[in-house]
Write a structure and sequence with these properties.
This protein has 11 helices and 10 strands. The protein has 293 residues and is α/β, with parallel strands linked by helices.
């Protein structure tokens, strides 16, 4: 059995961010959630940074209610102005996305990204704040790779033109399939949740860390902790998992959890249960639930 700590990978974001802090005075972290659905994750990251750092932390950037509750201070746009969860046609999408500046199906999302970058860089007092008022020790952008590169490109130019040291820029998104060497100037490190490795004939790998989905980690932890046979393999936020028969172990725990769930909720074995997952933002749920009915 191999010790597999889900929390260790998840907290790599926190660790790398904290290492970038300089000593003396309050530390500022710029956190930017580019979708309403990232508000929960952003709040969790902020909370863990505060808990694990020995310094006074202040946050600026952009987020929702949950991030504000964790101490997000000055904001430079409204998260509602971002297009939430853009539609991506998977068939032939990757090739067209790489070879064409704007894919027809996502063109309006990209144009909106340009508007958001212009609003934050040119129309707000962000550049003044990062030089005079706050001077961030690190940047963390959650989601939306097109916005991230355009936004970081502007910041990179600002730091270079003003002969200032550029703080590390971290980024979290689903995949790193099209990250290239020339993008390292705009992003120092990416965290990704889908283990789809980029195909690159030069064997280049963008500086990145796979962290997985927190929901999957919680579901597996739930199964292990409630299992009569494998509960001892769950310790805190870590699991001891097999490198050879992991899938078989998980499959063996499902019938037990299924029976327990039905007993706890008084569901007869003869009844059929449907699992519905309409989404994690209000507008998405309002759209998906009537459609499912």
């Amino acid at each position: 059995m191999l010790a597999g700590s889900f929390s260790q990978k998840s907290t790599s974001i926190i660790t790398k961010t904290i290492r970038s802090f300089s000593s003396g005075g309050p530390t500022t972290v710029f956190v930017l959630a580019t979708q309403q659905s990232y508000d929960t994750l952003g709040a969790s990251i902020m909370r863990h940074i505060k808990n694990q750092s020995n310094e006074e932390i202040q946050f600026i950037g952009l987020g929702g209610e949950k991030m504000r509750a964790e101490g997000l201070g000055k904001e430079y746009e409204k998260i509602e102005n971002f297009e939430d969860k853009p539609f991506y046609p998977w068939k032939n999408f990757l090739a067209k996305h790489i070879n064409q500046p704007i894919h027809a199906a996502v063109g309006h999302y990209i144009l909106n990204d340009y508007k958001m970058v212009k609003s934050m860089i040119q129309k707000s007092d962000l550049l003044y704040d990062i030089e005079k008022a706050y001077q961030p020790s690190a940047y963390l952008i959650l989601g939306n790779n097109h916005f991230m590169y355009r936004f970081n490109e502007k910041l990179q130019a600002y730091y270079y033109q003003n002969h200032k040291f550029k703080p590390p820029m971290f980024y979290l998104d689903k995949m790193i399939y099209n990250a290239s060497h020339d993008q390292e100037g705009f992003c120092d490190h990416q965290f990704y949740t889908i283990p789809k490795e980029p195909v690159n004939w030069q064997y280049y790998r963008f500086p990145s860390t796979f962290i997985g989905f927190s929901g999957v980690s919680k579901a597996l932890s739930h199964l292990y902790k409630r299992s009569s046979q494998y509960s001892e393999l769950a310790e805190g936020n870590s699991l001891y998992v097999s490198t050879e028969n992991f899938s078989e172990v998980v499959e063996s725990m499902l019938p037990e959890e299924r029976s327990r769930f039905r007993r706890e909720h008084n569901i007869d074995e003869s009844h059929t249960v449907f699992y519905v997952s309409p989404g994690n933002v209000a507008d998405e749920i309002k759209f998906a639930v009537p459609t499912a009915k």
